[in-house]
Amino acid sequence: MNRIEPEYTTHEDYFGNFIGWILPFALIIGIWFFVFKRMSKGAGGGAGGGNIFNVGKSKAKVFDKESDIKTNFKDVAGLAEAKQEVEEIVEFLKHPENYTKLGGKIPKGALLVGPPGTGKTLLAKAVAGEAHVPFFSMSGSDFVEMFVGVGASRVRDLFKQAKEKSPCIIFIDEIDAIGRARGKNPNMGANDERENTLNQLLTEMDGFDTNSGVIILAATNRADILDRALMRAGRFDRQIHVELPDLNEREEIFNVHLRPLKLDESVKSEFLAKQTPGFSGADIANVCNESALIAARKKKNVIQKQDFLDAVDRIIGGLEKKNKIISITEKKTIAYHEAGHATISWLLEYAHPLVKVTIVPRGKALGAAWYLPEERSITTKEQMLDEMCSALGGRAAEELIFGKISTGAQNDLEKVTKQAMAMVSIFGMSEKVGNVSYYDSSGQSDYGFSKPYSEKTAELIDKEVKILIDESYKRAKQVLLDNMDKHSKLAELLLEREVIFSEDLEEIFGKRAFGTPEGLDEKKIDPKTEEESKNEDNETKAV
């Protein structure tokens, strides 16, 4: 019998060995490539992003001549003077020969300065829509990066692109992010990157040809902290102040924001403008939107006048808190406190007359009052004293009626203290301190933590401030003592209704001896509760 011996043969899998050897390296390379691509997307913004080395490229958004910006000067209501200035800038770009043929030089830059919400960015958008030239839009914070030298590099790249597309406009929003005054930081070396960016911006603004057709617009609401070199002629030649709108401008802004709304016939922009003193354009837009939401919440088909008034109340005072637990004693204290404010404001000549007062909690306040301030450009000492007296009416009423005071006057005391301090140390309204002002409106003072006056003067200022407040408080108590019965009647009415209006004060005190301000006599407010209003709306629909 022949025995068969098994034979063993080894075959090597070269392909498998190759895959096993190359796979770890391929995995590492793949992960590295993925991370590299992600980094390049995050770092290479603006014109030429695509790899990590473009981190120094400008991140400005470019809107060319065929841009889809639909905003134009017709959409900018109010701001007549500011709009005229920027319209002239657009004319510089469209027809530069009309100005240069006489030897004039086209301005290099314009700085839009004003409080938040007044329309600075909107004006810049309108310029972009009207100019029909390339428009570079960038925020001041876009220049600031964690890498050293990136800010300066982005400034250089931005101006390089702008020169290539001349004539054009560069818009830098919130320029205070990089334009702060140099040398004011107490931490040595901590602000070098921002200062380097500012230095490069200053160099670029004063480096290109005067008539190259590149105009810079910038916006800020903190012009007082900007560097002096940035503000000088030859860089930002023009400073365009965009202030809070006055009565006529508010009416124009309301007309713009009321266009898309379904309104009741009783809603008039003139009336609404009178009820919103001190409101910015953004506030007015918010009022219109909030009124639409309130009307929709009440299932109305159109927005009525009362909805706008409710919207103003909500924006100023906050949301009503009708379920907040308040004891009877606290409610009575709040009623007499608010009635004290209302009484004095109605009886003094220069105090703002009351529009509405409520003891229904709103936001953090347990009670609230709405006044219709007179719009004036300057304020006299007598007007300020009347306003201080009115603000102290709540604290005076608590002391006279209950013989004790509460924490409810904290906001009033804060306001009065600031006003008295301003009268003495800023406006020169104290005979003993004299006609001096310890305030630098330019914001370039080097006072730091030290005061610009001696300790003896500081003591005198403190004494004068206390005298002003004490005299106003005594005067408030005297006015309430002279009208104690009417004040108590008003407070009891407030306790009963929780909300009272100017016509209720007129019934108790009679017409104001100094006349009714324009707009207050037109304020026809329905004093019904929200529940009654809902019932009436339902009945109207049923009919």
Q: Can you characterise this structure?
A:
There is one protein chain. With 543 residues, the chain is an alpha/beta fold. It has four domains: 24-51; 58-184 and 192-241, 3-Layer(aba) Sandwich (Rossmann fold), CATH 3.40.50; 247-317 and 530-542, Helicase, Ruva Protein, domain 3 (Orthogonal Bundle); 328-437 and 453-509, Peptidase M41 (Methane Monooxygenase Hydroxylase, Chain G, domain 1). The chain is 49% helix and 8% strand. It has 20 helices and nine strands. It has helices at 14-43, 80-94, 97-100, 120-131, 150-164, 176-179, 192-205, 228-231, 247-258, 269-274, 281-297, 305-317, 328-347, 381-391, 393-402, 410-425, 455-482, 484-497, 502-509, 530-542, and strands spanning 61-63, 109-113, 135-139, 168-173, 214-220, 238-241, 354-358, 368-371, 499-501. The strands form two sheets. Strands 1-3-4-5-2-6 form a six-stranded mixed sheet. The protein has a three-stranded antiparallel sheet with strand order 8-7-9. Helix 13 (328-347) packs antiparallel against helix 14 (381-391). 34% of the residues are buried. The model is unreliable at 42-52 and 519-543 (pLDDT under 50).
Gist of the model:
The chain is of the alpha/beta class.
Could you tell me the mean pLDDT?
79
CATH level-four homologous superfamily name of the largest domain: P-loop containing nucleotide triphosphate hydrolases
- The rounded distance between the terminal residues' Cα atoms is 118 Å
Q: What oligomeric state is this?
A: single chain
The amount of helix comes to 40-55%
Strand/helix succession: HEHHEHEHEHHEHEHHHHHEEHHHHHEHH
